[in-house]
């Protein structure tokens, strides 16, 4: 416990604790039944605080979260979310985990070496993103996915996020933040029909703040690593 407390800053501990408190409080207030949602939310927000440190353990937790979230999405016929997380986010999190483990900063397995994506690869990334988005749109349409437009946008932001995570770019956190906003909209729409999904909305609000912090943290890591500071 002491090692964990020393590993994280006071701000990071406060952010994680506040996020978990909001998640648990919203679960008690609006759900009290779907414990899978509660578990997934806590696992997800914990993965983000490790990701903010560039720790590969965060990607391991993201694999678990993706599996749980896929099941939750299935319960409201958000097949786009289910397919995206089980068929794309989860496998890419595995690749990201391998990439992060293979690229430690100065041999420190608890911190990945930050990478910069060159212009040529950025163009390739955007072309690939468009292709993936179009393909998924027709897949979602085939399955009569609820709220297909925001679901398709979610595919776009999710793909950008997992690609940038795999490539160890600080901008993966911003892509995830954009995805959080889309998911907040999706689950607000779902909560209109079933109030219990407000707990999922609160989950992604917490994710949004954690992802914004993650981007700031990675920018600091990038500057520190550029100066070769351990």
Description of the structure:
The protein is mainly alpha-helical and 230 residues long. Helices cover 79% and strands 3% of the residues. It has helices at 2-7, 10-30, 35-52, 57-75, 79-102, 119-142, 148-166, 172-193, 198-226; strands at residues 104-105, 108-112. A two-stranded antiparallel ribbon has the order 1-2. Helix 7 (148-166) packs antiparallel against helix 8 (172-193). The longest helix is centred in the C-terminal third of the chain and has 29 residues, at 198-226. It is globular, with a radius of gyration of 17 Å. The model has no long low-confidence stretch (mean pLDDT 90).
Helix/strand layout:
Blueprint: H1 2-7, H2 10-30, H3 35-52, H4 57-75, H5 79-102, E1 104-105, E2 108-112, H6 119-142, H7 148-166, H8 172-193, H9 198-226
Antiparallel strand pairs: 1-2
Helix pairs in contact: 2-3, 2-9, 3-4, 3-9, 4-5, 5-7, 6-7, 7-8, 8-9
User: Strand share of the residues?
Assistant: under 5%
The gyration radius over C-alpha positions equals 17 Å
> What does the largest sheet look like?
2 strands, antiparallel
Per the principal axes of the C-alpha atoms, what is the gross shape?
A: globular
Strand order of the largest sheet: 1-2
DSSP summary: helix tally: 9
Task: Specify the structural class.
Answer: mainly alpha
Proportion of residues in helical segments: over 70%
Multimeric status of the protein: single chain
Distance between the termini: 23 Å
Count of β-strands:
2
Order of helices and strands: HHHHHEEHHHH
Overall pLDDT: 90
Low-pLDDT sequence parts: none
